[in-house]
Design brief:
By secondary structure, this protein is of the alpha+beta class. The chain has ten helices and four strands. Strand 2 (226-231) and strand 3 (238-246) form a beta hairpin. It starts with a helix and ends in a 13-residue tail after the last strand. The relative contact order is 0.12.
C-alpha cells in the first residue's frame, strides 16, 4: 500500500513538471505568436485569443465530458492518471499565463522552441503512464466504432481541423504552416525522449554460412544472434535465418561481416523503436 502511494506521488510530481514545461511553451512561444499547439489546447488558446477566456479553465471544461466518456468506456488506472495530468495542465496554463512573459519573436524560432518544449513536457507525462487527455481519448473512442480509422490517423485529422480553425481565428493563413513546424518539432522531441537512446535496427539475415557470420557478430560486434530455421517458399531449400538487434551506428559493421562471409546473403533491415534487454535498456519500469 505504501509503495503504491509513493509511486502515485512520484507520478503526480512528474505530471506537474511535464505540465508546467508544456504550459510554459504555450504561454511564452506558441500562443503569443498565433501558433496553434493542436488538440484541445489549440481550441482553448484560440478562444483565449478571440474572447480573452482563460485558456487553462477552458481546457479543463472541454476535457470534462471527454474524461467521463473515457472512464465509462475504458475505466481503469489509465483514465485516472490522465484525469490528474489533464487537471495539472489546465492549472499550469493558468499559472504560466499569469507569471511568465509572452515572447513576440521570429515565428520560426517560436514554432521550433515551442514545439521542443511541448514535446518534452508531453513526453514526461507519457513516460509516467498517462496522456493529457483531449483528442487522444476521442480518437480511441471513434476507433472502437470505426476500426478502419487508426488512432494515429484520427488524431492527425482532428489536429488538422483544429489548426485550420485556429488560422481562421487568428485571421492568418501562415499560422497553419508555423503550427505544422511546431507539431513536427514536438513529435521529434517526443520520439527522442521516449525512444531515442533505445532506438536501433532489427536485422534479418538469410545466409549459407550462419556459423561464420554468428561467430563474428558475437566476437567483433559483441551482439547476440538468434538462429532460426527457414525454408524458401519457392526453392524449398533450407537455410538459416539470423536475427540480431544493434544500434544504428553498428549496422555498417554488420554489413562488413556479412559481406566477408556471404556476399549473396539476403538482408532485411527494419527500425526497432525501442529495445529492452541485455546490452540495451534494462527491462524495468
Amino acid at each position: 500500500m505504501f509503495k503504491s502511494l509513493t509511486a502515485t506521488a512520484k507520478d503526480i510530481i512528474w505530471y506537474f513538471i511535464g505540465s508546467f514545461i508544456y504550459s510554459a511553451a504555450v504561454t511564452m512561444f506558441v500562443s503569443p505568436n498565433e501558433i496553434s499547439p493542436g488538440g484541445l489546447t489549440g481550441i482553448a488558446t484560440a478562444l483565449n485569443y478571440l474572447f480573452s477566456l482563460p485558456a487553462g479553465i477552458v481546457l479543463f471544461i472541454l476535457n470534462i465530458p471527454i474524461l467521463i466518456l473515457g472512464f465509462l468506456k475504458f475505466g481503469g488506472v489509465f483514465i485516472f492518471k490522465t484525469a490528474i495530468a489533464t487537471a495539472l495542465v489546465s492549472f499550469s496554463l493558468t499559472i504560466t499565463d499569469n507569471l511568465l512573459p509572452a515572447f513576440n519573436i521570429d515565428k520560426i524560432l517560436a514554432a521550433v522552441f515551442g514545439g521542443i518544449l511541448m514535446g518534452l513536457g508531453l513526453s514526461i507525462v507519457i513516460r509516467r503512464g498517462a496522456t493529457t487527455g483531449g483528442i487522444d481519448i476521442i480518437a480511441k473512442l471513434i476507433n472502437m466504432k470505426f476500426r478502419h480509422f487508426t488512432v494515429g490517423r484520427l488524431i492527425l485529422i482532428m489536429d488538422g481541423i483544429i489548426i485550420a480553425v485556429a488560422a481562421v481565428a487568428y485571421k492568418n493563413v501562415e499560422s497553419v504552416l508555423y503550427s505544422i513546424i511546431s507539431m513536427y518539432a514536438s513529435s521529434r522531441v517526443m520520439d527522442i525522449v521516449l525512444y531515442g537512446a533505445d532506438k536501433g535496427r532489427l536485422i534479418y539475415i538469410v545466409t549459407k554460412f550462419p556459423n561464420e557470420v554468428c561467430r563474428d557478430i558475437n566476437t567483433k560486434m559483441h551482439r547476440g544472434v538468434t538462429v532460426l530455421k527457414a525454408t524458401g517458399g519457392y526453392t524449398g531449400e533450407e537455410r538459416s535465418l539470423l536475427l540480431c538487434t544493434v544500434r544504428i551506428h553498428e549496422v555498417s559493421g554488420i554489413y562488413s561481416i556479412i559481406d566477408k562471409h556471404d556476399p549473396n546473403a539476403f538482408i532485411v533491415v527494419s527500425e526497432a523503436g525501442e529495445i529492452l534487454g541485455e546490452g540495451f535498456k534494462a527491462n524495468k519500469q
